[in-house]
Design a protein that fits this description.
Elements: E1 2-3, E2 194-199, E3 202-207, E4 217-225, E5 231-240, H1 247-265, H2 272-289, E6 311-320, E7 323-329, E8 333-338, E9 346-347, H3 354-360, H4 366-371, E10 377-378, E11 382-383, E12 392-396, E13 402-407, H5 409-412, H6 418-424, H7 433-446, E14 453-460, H8 464-470
Parallel strand pairs: 1-10
Antiparallel strand pairs: 2-3, 3-14, 4-5, 5-6, 6-7, 6-11, 7-12, 8-9, 8-13, 13-14
Helix pairs in contact: 1-2
Length: 472
């Protein structure tokens, strides 16, 4: 993931003559076109990727600035999902058990990435001299029961010090106390390299992938209750910006802050969409605080102080009382996949990216924009060096049951269109949430695992009575 400054006029080329523009241009240098006269793109406020139709029966949200937040809803099943890619992505059969046999060949290359090299044994050097680290296959994970607490016993003689662990890279050297191999020098996997969590009504899996040396993604999942006693579930997924400093800390801080904010607001009866807006603001403040230097006087402003500050993207979902709310900044996404696969899926978020900006401005079609090497440069993120914070939120009221997929681009790069995502989500995902998330992470690993991968699944259940009321 990379950052790209947002042009002040929102244009990369002159609307009059198509001459390339600089971010600070006020007039076109070729034809003199007044760039300040360019009308703002329609739908500049928060809008979902499909039309809004049905209002929600929910208490009014607290007062706020006009236009800062939309509280309208729509039926995701009414329109098909949108494909922001404009190009085909590698496809492969979805596996739900066990690793790919060795004879199946090398993994497919990532979109726009280098071709995959020939397969080689884990622990042996790759052609570039590096080592491929062993990564757990999430589909083969076994959930172990927690170990019982040891009973009190009489003091015994000290146990012998355990022998040093064997390096997972070269399989020959021993790991020192600092976590590095004494033979090849490779850092050993950390606990954050692969994490899983399952609660009532939500599950998430995060994996380092096959090409990154650390996991810069983070997630927060939780369940709570509303004032009327009904359940509410939430999922937050954050992706650290690799070109910034300490991206892993940024994503962790954002996920923790957003999750805590929602857990505090929802039980108080806050409107879920307002609560999501406030959670994103809290996440931004948490990431901004990572750039503050101890002892720095706030009155002395250094224009270079926040250059390359910690940064991340964020996407979240809340399911509560028949309402589905999503919020985001950046290019992490949320998808709607109905249980009835004959019904159309939908993408619920709209990327803050260079390509999406070009398409919205009418300067390129999707195929042209996403063929450009700048396509995935993000134009919105959380961080002290970001532009004005612009949290996007949208509320939906589906008329059928399904599952919400909340994920980073490490997954959707391998299932970009809503139809592709629906194809790889297991049919029983709503009943086996953790298994479904493991399958999706495995799908990205099969495709090459070129980025960190994080996905959370949140089911949305509609009873027969609710379905009839929603479609009336």
């Amino acid at each position: 993931m990379s950052q790209k400054p947002k042009p002040s006029h929102g244009l990369a080329a002159c609307p009059g003559c198509a001459e390339p523009l600089e971010s600070g241009d006020r007039f076109c240098g070729a034809c003199g076109y007044d760039l300040s006269a360019v009308p703002a793109a329609e739908g500049g406020d928060d809008r979902p990727t499909v039309a809004i139709v049905t209002p929600v029966t929910w208490p009014d949200a607290p007062p706020r600035d006009p236009g800062s937040l939309s509280t309208m809803t729509q039926h995701p099943g009414d329109l098909p999902g949108t494909d922001s890619g404009g190009r085909d992505l590698p496809t492969m059969e979805v596996r739900t058990d066990g690793p790919v046999p060795a004879e199946s060949g090398a993994p497919a290359p990532a979109p726009g990435g280098p071709p995959a090299s020939a397969p080689h044994a884990v622990g042996s050097p790759t052609p570039d001299g590096d080592f491929e680290l062993a990564a757990p296959d999430p589909r083969t994970a076994v959930r172990a029961d927690p170990a019982p607490e040891p009973a009190a016993a009489a003091p015994t003689a000290p146990a012998a010090a355990p022998s040093a662990a064997l390096c997972v890279a070269c399989r020959a050297g021993r790991v020192d106390t600092d976590g590095y191999c004494e033979n090849c020098g490779h850092a050993q996997p950390h606990e954050r390299d692969h994490t899983e969590r399952e609660l009532s009504g939500v599950a998430a899996v995060s994996d380092r992938g096959l090409r990154h040396h650390r996991n810069e993604d983070a997630f927060a999942v939780a369940s709570t209750t509303l004032p009327d006693g009904s359940p509410a579930t939430l999922a937050i997924v954050c992706d650290g910006v690799s070109s910034a400093t300490r991206p892993d800390e940024a994503s962790a801080a954002a996920a923790e802050a957003a999750g805590a904010s929602l857990l505090a607001a929802l039980p108080r009866g806050a409107h879920p969409q307002q609560a999501m807006h406030e959670a994103i603001v809290a996440a931004a403040e948490a990431v901004n605080s990572l750039a503050e230097e101890p002892g720095q006087d706030g009155a002395e402003h250094d224009p270079h102080r926040h250059r390359n500050a910690p940064a991340c993207t964020i996407v979240g979902s809340v399911v509560a009382s028949g309402l589905l709310v999503v919020g985001w900044v950046g290019d992490s996404r949320a998808y709607w996949v109905p249980d009835d696969r004959s019904a159309p899926p939908a993408r619920l978020t709209e990327d803050d990216s260079w390509a999406a900006q070009m398409v919205a401005a009418g300067l390129m079609n999707e195929a042209e924009a996403y063929a450009d090497e700048r396509a995935h440069a993000i134009t919105g993120w959380l961080g002290a060096d970001s532009y004005e914070l612009d949290p996007h939120t949208a509320a939906f009221k589906p008329d059928r049951s399904g599952v919400v997929v909340v994920c980073t681009d490490g997954l959707w790069n391998y299932a970009e269109a809503a139809e592709d995502m629906a194809r790889v989500v297991p049919a029983d995902a709503a009943d086996r949430l953790l298994h479904g998330a493991q399958v999706l992470v495995g799908h990205a690993l099969d495709g090459g695992g070129h980025d960190n991968i994080t996905v959370a699944l949140v089911p949305f259940t509609v009873t027969p009575g609710q379905a009839g009321a929603g479609s009336a």
